[in-house]
Amino acid sequence: MSKEKGNDLTLKIFALIIAIILWSYVMSKENPPFKSELKNVNVDFINESVLERQGLVVMEPKNANIKVTISGRRSDVLEVSKKDIIAQVDLNGYSEGNVKVPVYVQVPDDVRIEDYSPKEILFKFDKIIRENSPVVIETQGKLPEGYVLGTPEIKPQSVYIEGPRTWINSVAKVVAYVDVSNKTEDIKVTVPIKVVDDEGEDVRGVTKEQNVVDIYIPVYQTKKLPIELQTENQLPDNYEIVNVNINPSTIEIKGKKEDLVGIFSINTKPIDINTLIDNINVPIELELPEGVSLVNPDKKITITLNIDESRTRTFDYTLKDVEIKNMDTSLYIDEEDLNKPFTVTVKGISSIIDSLEKEDLGLELDLRNLEEGSHRVNIEIRLEDGIEIISILPESFDIKLIKE
C-alpha cells in the first residue's frame, strides 16, 4: 500500500512539471492580451518659465502623481515601468487663481492607455508682488529703574519685500529686535530684520531688499516732581482761594542727567485765576525746562480751585466774656471795668464765617506780674484757621486791680 502511494505522488509531480512547461510554451508562443495598473506616475510641469515671465508662481501643488492603466501583449506590458510613461501638464496661458489643468499622458508604442486618473490637476497660481513695508522696532529686556527709552530712529525706515501674493498677505510686520537690557546710555546698533506673521513666525518665500537696519534709541533718566501752580491777575476783593487741587499733583519727566540737575518742581504755564472761578477740572499746560519732556506726553493735567466769597462779621463783648489769665489771686477787677464793651471784627470765607459764633473766638487777657492799681491792657484772641482779625475796638483798656 505504501509503495502505491509513493508512485502516485511521483506521477502528480511529473504531471505538474509537464503542465508548467506546456503553459510557458503556450505563453511564449501565443503572448495573450494583458492589463497593468501603474501607480504614482510622476507628472512633469512644463512651461514654468513662461509663468515666471508673467510674474506668476505655482503655489500648489509642488509635485503631482497619477495612476495609469495600460494594456497590450503581456510581454510588452510587463516591460513597461513608470519611468517609460510621460505625464505632463502645460502651464502656459494661465492667470492668477485656482485653475484645473489637464494632464497629457504618453506611453510606449507597444502598449496603449486604457485609463488614467486624475485627468485634471487643480493648480493655484499666485502673482509675485512687491511691497514697501515699514520696519517696526521691538525691544527685548528691561532698562534699569529710573530710565526710559526715547523715540527711536531707524535707517532705512522701510524696506521692499517681494513674494507670492498669498505669502505677502500673511506678513504681519517687518521687525527689528533690539536688546535694551540694563542700558543706561544711548543705543546704537545694526540688527537683522525679520518678516513675520501674526504669530511671530518667519514667513517663508518672501525676499527682502536688505537684511539689516541701523537703529538709534536715546536713553533718558526720569524724575517724579510736584507741579506748582502759576497764576496771573487777581481775584475780586471779596474772594479767597480755599484750596488748590492739581490732578495729578506730580508728574514724571525725562531728560539727560545734566538737564535734570537742579530741577525740583515743574511750573504750570501762567493761568488767569479768574477763569478758575466756578470751573472744575480746568486743563493746564506745563512749562518744561529746555531738554526736558514728559515721560507720558499724553497725560492730561487739570486744576480745580476751591474759591469762596469772603465776608466779615462783628461781635460785641465785655471783659466778662474774656478769659482772665495769671491774675494775682489777691486781686480782682473793678466791676465797672468788667462791663466795658468792645467789638471784634473778623474776616474769612463764607463757609466758615457764616457758622461762626462769638463763643468760638478765644478771648484772653493776660495779667501776669500786674499789681494793685490802674493798668492799660490789650485783649488777645486765639483764631481758628481761615479767620482773620480785621479790628478790635477799642484796641486797649484801662482797668483797675483792687486788693481784696
Strand content: over 45%
Outline the biggest β-sheet. Answer: 9 strands, mixed
Tell me, briefly, the overall form. Answer: rod-shaped
CATH architecture of the largest domain: Beta Complex
Radius of gyration: 53 Å
Mean pLDDT: 89
Helix % is 10-25%
Counting H and I runs of at least 4 residues, what is the number of helices?
7
The strand count comes to 33
CATH class of the largest domain: Mainly Beta
Helix/strand/pairing category: mainly beta
Low-confidence stretches: none
Query: What's the number of structural domains?
Result: 4
CATH topology of the largest domain: RNA Polymerase Alpha Subunit, Chain A, domain 2
Q: What gap, in angstroms, lies between the N and C termini?
A: 173 Å
Overview of this protein structure:
With 404 residues, the chain is mostly beta strands. The chain has four domains: 28-118, RNA Polymerase Alpha Subunit, Chain A, domain 2 (Beta Complex), CATH 2.170.120.30; 128-217, YbbR-like domain (RNA Polymerase Alpha Subunit, Chain A, domain 2); 222-309, YbbR-like domain (RNA Polymerase Alpha Subunit, Chain A, domain 2), CATH 2.170.120; 311-403, RNA Polymerase Alpha Subunit, Chain A, domain 2 (Beta Complex). Helix content is 14%, strand content 51%. Strands 2, 5, 8, 10, 11, 12, 13, 14 and 15 form a nine-stranded mixed beta sheet that branches. Strands 9, 16, 19, 20, 23 and 24 form a six-stranded mixed beta sheet that branches. A five-stranded mixed beta sheet has the order 6-4-1-3-7. The termini are far apart.
